[in-house]
Amino acid sequence: MSDRDLPVALPIAQWPRHSIAQAALTFGWKRARLPGTGIVEWFRPDGKRLGQFDEEKNEVWLSTELADNETEVLRTIGHELEHAVEHHHGHGALFDEKRAQLAGDRFVKLWDEHIADLHAKAAASGVAREPFQRFFAGSAFDAGLDDHAFQTVEARQPHARRPRYAYDE
Q: Among residues 25, 74, 92, 104, which one has the fewest Cβ atoms lying within 10 Å of its Cβ?
């Protein structure tokens, strides 16, 4: 589909929280060996579609109607991934809906196997009971940069004395 057919994007602040959509899309994108990175975009329900693939930007658009149903999110991502594969292999004008529906159902099973494997590896590690995601410095979850940190009260407090050692005397 072209940009003319895309729904209106929601601002990021209105996106569903705690959705597995981007993680699932990244997993499927890598598994399908598609070039680049697939990106999830969200839109308000419009009564016409639950998801859509934008082949120009490698974006999968999902309706917020799906946000509370993890299985439907996965099924829709699998469906749109099949369209991405079709487009990548040059069959863009011949999107096959039946094949994409079956791909969506297969993707739900693949995701469940993937998650079960992650849980098994986490349990076998003896360190983590469940898989977890690390947020590295510079992510959106870090506190913002404070350009005036050196002027705060904490910064102006006297520093602790350094330890004294025998060779200092």
A: 92
